[in-house]
C-alpha cells in the first residue's frame, strides 16, 4: 500500500532541510524538523502551541539558525503527492521519525495521509534530545497527543480518498474556466466567512478551543485548494464580470444582532463548502472529499457555538450547584435541599447510589416540586430514564456511562446533558459531543467519591479549562468555604459541591457563605 504525505508534511520536511542548511549543520536532524514544524502553519504547529511550545523556545534550546530568505514558493510547490518511500529516500536521517509517523497513521480506522501532526508524533516517540526536551515541556505527553489525533479524526466525517488521479472532467475550455471560477469565488466566500466567525470566537465568545477547530478548517481549505491548483483558480478569476457582485439586497446589510451576524456567516461557510464540494468533484476527488469533511466539521462547529451561547444563557445565574445524597445529610436530604434552595443554590442534582428505582422516583418527584417552586434547575445523576420520569431539566453522566448521543435519544432535545471530565481532552470532546455543561474535577481531595491519588486533576485542570472553554462548566471535588476562592482564582465561575452543603449543620448558612465568595 502506498503511503502519502500531506502537503503540510512535505513543506515541513523541505523547510527542515533549509533550516539544516542555514544552521550549517553537517546533516539534517530531528531538531531541524521540530523547528520546521513550529515554523510552518500546520496542524503540528497548532498542537505545539496548544501545549505552549513556541518556535522561540526551540531556537533557544537547539543550535538552529532559521533561513533569512523565505521559502521559494515555486520550488516548494507541493502539488505532486510525495510517497513515504520517496521521503525515506530523500530524508534518510529522519527514517525513524517517518516510521513512527507511519505507525501512528496505520492505527487510524480511516485511510489517512501522513500529516505534520504525525511527524510531530514521530519526534515525540523517537529517542534523542528532541523528544526528551519535548516531553520535559509539561503537557505534551504521548497520551495527550494521541487524544488530539483521535479528536481530529473524529472531526473528519469521511475518510480521505487517497487515490490521487487528477481528473479534469469538464470538457470544453469554457466549462473548465467556469468551474475554476466558481471554485475560486466559493473559496473566497468561505475564507471571508471563516474570518468573520474566527473574529467572533476571538473577540466576543473568547473560546480558544472552538477557534482552534476553525483554524483546522482553514488549513484544510488550503490543502484542498492545492489539489485544485492555485494557478488555474487565479487565472480563471473574473470578478468584474461575476453576476451578483454589483447587486446587493438590503438584507445583506442588515444584521439585527451579533448572533444574527454569526448565524448568517455560519450558513455562508456551509453553503460555500457545498459549492466547493460539488464543483470540486469535477477537478479532484481528493479536494471534494476534503471539502465534504470541512462541511461536516462546520456543522459540528455551528452546533457547538450555538450550544455555548444557549447554555450560557440558561445557566447565567447558576454559580452554585448542589449534588444531594441522602447518606451525607445529617437531618435528611429534604431540609438540606430546601434550605440550600432558599439561600440561592441554582441547580440541584439527585445523586443517589443506594436507592431503588421506586424510591428514586418518589424522592425525585419531591425534589422536583421544591426546585420548581424555587425556580431552580433539577438534574438526575446517571439515569436518563428517571430524568424523564420525574420531569427533571437534565441528566448528568460520567465518562463510563452512556454517551451524549445516546442520552439525547432518551431525554429529547430540550433537557440538559452534563458530562464529567477529568482532563482537557475529555473537556474538549464533551463540547464537540454536544454536552450542555461539563463537570471539571476533581479539584481537591474528596471523600464523597473515590479517586486514586494520581486522578486528582487539581487547579491546573481548572486553569486549562478556563483558558479555552466557554461552554458553562462547574469545578467540582472537595470544594468548601475555605478553598473555593482558589478555584475562583484559577478561573472557575461556577462550582458544584456535595458534602460541604449536605453535611453542614446549617445548609442554608453555608450556601450563603459559598455564594458570597463569587465576585459581583
Ligand atoms: C456536576 C457533576 N460533575 C461531575 C459529576 C461526577 O459524575 P460521574 O463521574 O458520573 O460520577 P458519579 O457522580 O456518578 O459518581 C457529577 N455527578 N456532577
Ligand atoms: C461526584 C464527584 N465527581 C467528581 C468529579 O471530579 O467528577 S468530584 C465528586 C465529589 C463531589 O463531592 P464533594 O463536593 O463532597 O467533594
Ligand atoms: Mg455517574
TrEMBL record:
Provide the alphabetized UniProt keywords. Answer: Magnesium, Metal-binding, Thiamine biosynthesis, Transferase
The pathway it acts in is:
Cofactor biosynthesis; thiamine diphosphate biosynthesis; thiamine phosphate from 4-amino-2-methyl-5-diphosphomethylpyrimidine and 4-methyl-5-(2-phosphoethyl)-thiazole: step 1/1
CDD domains per the UniProt record, alphabetical: TMP_TenI
Q: Which GO terms describe its molecular function?
A: magnesium ion binding; thiamine-phosphate diphosphorylase activity
Query: Under which EC number(s) is this enzyme classified?
Result: 2.5.1.3
Residues binding 2-[(2R,5Z)-2-carboxy-4-methylthiazol-5(2H)-ylidene]ethyl phosphate, per UniProt: 446-448, 478
Which residues participate in 4-amino-2-methyl-5-(diphosphooxymethyl)pyrimidine binding? 349-353, 381, 420, 449
Claim: DNA damage is one of the keywords in the record: no
Q: Which residues form the Thiamine phosphate synthase/TenI domain?
A: 320-501
The ThiD2 domain is annotated at: 181-303
Residue sites binding Mg(2+) per the record:
382, 401
Please report the stretch or stretches of sequence annotated as the Clp R domain: 5-136
Give the CC-aspect GO terms: cytoplasm
This protein's cofactor list reads: Mg(2+)
PANTHER family annotated for this entry? THIAMINE-PHOSPHATE PYROPHOSPHORYLASE, THIAMINE-PHOSPHATE SYNTHASE
HAMAP family reported in the protein's UniProt record: TMP_synthase (MF_00097)
Q: Which family does it belong to?
A: Belongs to the thiamine-phosphate synthase family.
What is the designated name of this protein?
Thiamine-phosphate synthase
Instruction: Supply the source organism for this entry.
Output: Gimesia fumaroli
Lineage of this protein's species? Bacteria, Pseudomonadati, Planctomycetota, Planctomycetia, Planctomycetales
Amino acid at each position: 500500500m502506498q503511503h502519502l504525505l500531506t502537503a503540510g508534511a512535505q513543506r515541513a520536511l523541505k523547510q527542515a532541510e533549509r533550516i539544516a542548511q542555514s544552521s550549517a549543520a553537517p546533516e539534517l536532524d530531528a531538531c531541524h524538523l521540530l523547528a520546521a514544524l513550529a515554523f510552518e502553519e500546520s496542524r503540528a504547529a497548532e498542537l505545539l502551541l496548544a501545549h505552549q511550545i513556541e518556535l522561540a523556545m526551540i531556537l533557544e534550546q537547539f543550535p538552529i539558525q532559521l533561513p533569512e530568505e523565505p521559502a521559494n514558493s515555486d520550488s516548494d510547490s507541493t502539488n505532486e503527492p510525495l510517497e513515504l518511500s520517496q521521503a525515506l529516500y530523500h530524508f534518510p536521517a529522519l527514517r525513524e521519525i517517518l516510521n513512527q509517523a507511519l505507525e501512528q497513521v496505520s492505527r487510524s480506522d480511516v485511510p489517512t495521509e501522513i500529516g505534520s501532526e504525525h511527524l510531530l508524533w514521530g519526534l515525540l516517540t523517537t529517542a534523542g534530545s528532541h523528544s526528551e526536551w519535548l516531553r520535559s515541556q509539561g503537557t505534551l505527553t504521548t497520551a495527550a497527543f494521541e487524544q488530539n489525533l483521535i479528536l481530529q479524526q473524529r472531526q473528519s466525517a469521511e475518510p480521505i480518498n487517497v487515490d490521487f488521479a487528477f481528473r479534469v472532467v469538464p470538457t470544453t475550455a469554457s466549462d473548465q474556466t467556469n468551474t475554476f471560477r466558481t471554485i475560486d469565488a466559493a473559496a473566497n466566500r468561505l475564507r471571508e466567512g471563516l474570518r468573520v466567525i474566527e473574529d467572533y470566537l476571538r473577540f466576543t465568545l473568547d473560546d480558544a478551543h472552538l477557534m482552534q477547530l476553525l483554524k483546522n478548517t482553514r488549513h484544510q481549505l488550503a490543502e484542498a485548494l492545492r489539489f485544485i491548483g492555485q494557478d488555474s483558480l487565479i487565472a480563471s478569476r473574473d470578478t468584474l464580470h461575476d453576476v451578483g457582485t454589483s447587486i446587493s439586497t438590503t438584507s445583506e446589510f442588515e444584521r439585527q444582532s451579533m448572533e444574527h451576524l454569526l448565524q448568517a456567516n455560519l450558513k455562508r461557510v456551509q453553503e460555500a463548502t457545498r459549492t466547493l464540494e460539488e464543483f470540486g468533484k469535477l477537478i479532484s476527488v481528493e479536494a471534494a472529499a476534503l471539502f465534504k469533511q470541512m462541511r461536516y466539521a462546520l456543522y459540528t462547529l455551528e452546533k457547538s457555538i450555538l450550544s455555548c451561547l444557549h447554555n450560557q444563557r440558561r445557566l447565567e445565574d447558576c454559580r452554585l450547584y448542589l449534588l444531594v445524597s441522602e447518606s451525607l445529610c445529617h437531618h435528611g436530604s429534604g431540609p438540606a435541599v430546601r434550605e440550600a434552595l432558599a439561600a440561592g443554590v441554582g441547580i440541584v442534582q439527585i445523586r443517589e447510589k443506594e436507592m431503588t428505582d421506586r424510591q428514586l422516583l418518589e424522592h425525585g418527584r419531591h425534589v422536583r416540586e421544591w426546585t420548581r417552586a424555587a425556580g431552580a434547575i433539577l438534574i438526575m445523576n446517571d439515569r436518563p430514564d428517571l430524568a424523564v420520569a420525574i420531569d427533571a431539566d437534565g441528566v448528568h453522566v460520567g465518562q463510563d456511562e452512556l454517551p451524549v448521543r445516546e442520552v439525547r435519544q432518551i431525554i429529547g432535545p430540550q433537557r440538559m446533558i452534563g458530562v464529567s471530565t477529568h482532563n482537557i481532552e475529555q473537556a474538549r470532546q464533551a463540547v464537540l459531543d454536544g454536552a450542555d455543561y461539563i463537570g471539571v474535577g476533581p479539584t481537591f481531595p474528596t471523600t464523597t467519591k473515590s479517586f486514586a491519588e494520581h486522578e486528582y486533576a487539581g487547579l491546573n485542570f481548572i486553569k486549562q479549562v478556563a483558558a479555552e472553554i466557554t461552554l458553562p462548566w462547574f469545578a467540582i471535588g472537595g470544594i468548601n468555604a475555605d478553598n473555593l476562592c482558589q478555584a475562583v482564582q484559577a478561573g472557575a465561575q461556577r462550582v458544584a459541591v456535595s458534602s460541604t452543603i449536605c453535611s453542614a449543620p446549617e445548609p442554608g448558612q453555608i450556601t450563603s457563605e459559598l455564594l458570597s465568595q463569587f465576585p459581583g
